[in-house]
């Protein structure tokens, strides 16, 4: 188990990519904290992880709210004793078609909603 005794947070953990990452982290032994805006989606992933013998916790928050993320990270560390891995798998709808080299840093970090 590559991640035995590691604590991971997956922001966007209820989505397709975040959920897949979370499931794999759990298979590799990590305690996984799933964070996102939709409890139902997070709960589905948490149940799947538990059925497979892993451990997952769920928190509802907006990963684009830096204060909420900071508060959550502190809570994870307090509850679990560490925070070893953090993944941002938050999906955003955005305008596509602009070449990568023409994107500003801000557009790359948080694409414009279209």
Which secondary structure elements does this structure contain, and how are they paired or packed?
Elements (H helix, E strand, L loop, with lengths): L6 E5 L4 H12 L3 E6 L2 H13 L3 E6 L5 H15 L4 E4 L16 H5 L5
Parallel strand pairs: 1-2, 1-4, 2-3
Task: Give me some keywords for this one.
114 residues, alpha/beta, Rossmann fold, four-stranded parallel β-sheet, 39% helix, 18% strand
Describe, in plain words, how this protein is organized in 3D.
- The protein has one domain (7-109): Rossmann fold (3-Layer(aba) Sandwich).
- By secondary structure, it is of the alpha/beta class.
- The protein has four helices and four strands.
- Strands 3-2-1-4 form a four-stranded parallel β-sheet, sandwiched between helices.
- The radius of gyration is 15 Å and the shape is globular.
- The protein has helices at 16-27, 39-51, 66-80, 105-109; strands at residues 7-11, 31-36, 55-60, 85-88.
Output the radius of gyration.
15 Å
* CATH level-1 class: Alpha Beta
Distinct helical segment count: 4
What's the total count of β strands?
A: 4
CATH fold-level label: Rossmann fold
Note the run of SSEs as H and E: EHEHEHEH
The percent of residues in helical segments reads: 25-40%
Query: What class, by secondary structure content?
Result: alpha/beta
What is the spatial order of strands in the main beta sheet? 3-2-1-4
- Please report which band the strand proportion falls in: under 5%, 5-15%, 15-25%, 25-35%, 35-45% or over 45%: 15-25%
Give the distance, in angstroms, between the N- and C-terminal Cα atoms.
42 Å
Mean pLDDT: 89
Provide the domain count.
Answer: 1
CATH architecture: 3-Layer(aba) Sandwich
Describe the sheet with the most strands.
4 strands, parallel
CATH fourth-tier homologous superfamily: NAD(P)-binding Rossmann-like Domain
Shape descriptor: globular
Poorly predicted spans: none
């Amino acid at each position: 188990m590559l991640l035995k005794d590691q604590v991971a947070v997956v922001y966007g953990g209820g989505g397709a990519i975040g959920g897949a990452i979370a499931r794999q982290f759990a298979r590799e032994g990590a305690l996984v904290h799933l964070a996102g805006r939709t409890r139902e989606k997070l709960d589905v992933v948490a149940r799947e992880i538990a059925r497979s013998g892993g451990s997952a916790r769920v928190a509802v928050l907006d990963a684009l709210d830096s204060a909420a993320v900071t508060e959550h990270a502190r809570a994870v560390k307090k509850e679990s004793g560490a925070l070893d891995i953090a993944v941002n798998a938050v999906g955003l709808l955005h305008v596509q078609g602009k070449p990568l080299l023409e994107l500003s840093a801000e557009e790359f970090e948080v694409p414009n909603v279209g």
